[in-house]
Amino acid sequence: MASSTTPPARRSRPAAPPAPPAAPPAGPPTADVPLAGPPTADERPDERSDERSLDIPLPADDPELFEFDLRGLRVRWALAAARSPIGTEAMTGADRRAQILGVPSQRLMEHAGTAVAAAVKALAVDLGRWGSGRILILCGPGNNGGDGFVAARRLARAGADVVAVLVAPAARPTGADAVRNWDRLQGDHRVERIHAPAARDLAIIGQGIEKASVVVDALLGTGIRGALRDPIKAAVELVARARMEGIPVVAVDTPTALDLSSGEPSDPVVQADLTVTFHRPKIGLLTRKGAALAGRVLVAPIGIPPEADRG
Fold first, then answer.
1. Is-contact 251 269, C-beta < 8 A?
2. pLDDT tens readout for residues 124-133
3. Please, which residues have CB within 8 angstroms of residue 41's CB and are 6 or more apart in sequence?
4. Which of 247, 224, 76 is nearest to 238 (CA)?
5. Which of 117, 129, 147, 197 has the most neighbouring CB atoms within 10 Å?
6. Which spans in the chain are helix H?
7. What distance separates the 2 farthest-apart alpha carbons in the chain?
């Protein structure tokens, strides 16, 4: 992948483990990867429980997390996947109430990004791609991108070489948490930070895209209205090119431009091989269109307490 210049949001947090969709168009061979559908009866705990009450460590506090394969992550996070699905508004409300109850937003982001990093490593190892090339993480300016910056840092700590791209006109993310995690990448010798303010910058980054081991879509979460505009549109098109080259694609929370409530896509939309969503399954990922675009789904806990779902 070629690089451009290297100078130095709020998030949606819902998820859904849909049944495996019909085989998508061209893409990497992930169909036989042992991964997620809904938890089995043996894996399904009481929905009224939470990770704290069962002494299950949350992602950023889990010392064994990066040792799991994809099936192991599904079992580790079975409680989150067993919860009833929600849409965008309910997820936003749960996120907000968790912070009112004393859960720092920075901690929510740390758990989310760590979960994504563990899933990316597990997928890469399962496909024999771990260490075969750099991991490209395309990050929007908001909290979805902030999750991507955390994932970049955690993957670098796990031994990966990472390219973290801020896809936004402004040279810095929006929101204190995303800014903090973007800044934390500075000086990490395993992470190259790139600012891509325009479509031409994505074209440069896309040169040699076939050398990437995995591409991560951390562009946009919820709140998409209407058609995508550059540079986000160009980044989504770059993801499509990568997938056509056989590079596996991991989406953060939702494939960019897929509505988590309705499952309706905008155009263009990311086609993922694996989606890591947060806290609960998402209604939009369970629809026919949503499931086909999300690929396999993991639902990761991020520390939202059960009482935050009530309101």
1. no
2. 999 999 999 9
3. none
4. 247
5. 147
6. 70-76, 78-82, 88-100, 105-126, 143-157, 176-184, 199-205, 232-244, 283-286, 288-294
7. 51
DSSP assignment letter at 271 = -
**Residue type at 52 in one-letter notation:** R
CA distance 296 to 276: 9
* φ/ψ (deg, to 5) at 132: -90, -10
Residue 184 near residue 149, CB atoms below 8 Å: yes
For tokens 């009530």, the residue is 310
Q: Say what angle helices 105-126 and 143-157 make with each other, to 10 degrees.
A: 50
- CA pair distance 259, 193, nearest whole angstrom: 29
Helix (H, G, I), strand (E, B) or coil at 233: helix
Q: Which two tokens stand for residue 7?
A: 């100078």
C-alpha span between 307 and 311 (Å, rounded): 8
Place of tokens 């639902």: 299
Q: Choose among 307, 298, 257, 305: nearest CA to 115.
A: 298
- CA 234 from centroid of its chain's CA atoms: 19
Evaluate if residue 146 carries a pLDDT over 90.
yes
Q: Which residues pair with 193 in a beta bridge?
A: 164
DSSP of 83-106: SPPB-HHHHHHHHHHHHHTT--HH
Map out the domains of the chain with their CATH numbers.
59-306 (3.40.50.10260)
Query: How confident is residue 281, by pLDDT bands cut at 50, 70 and 90?
Result: very high
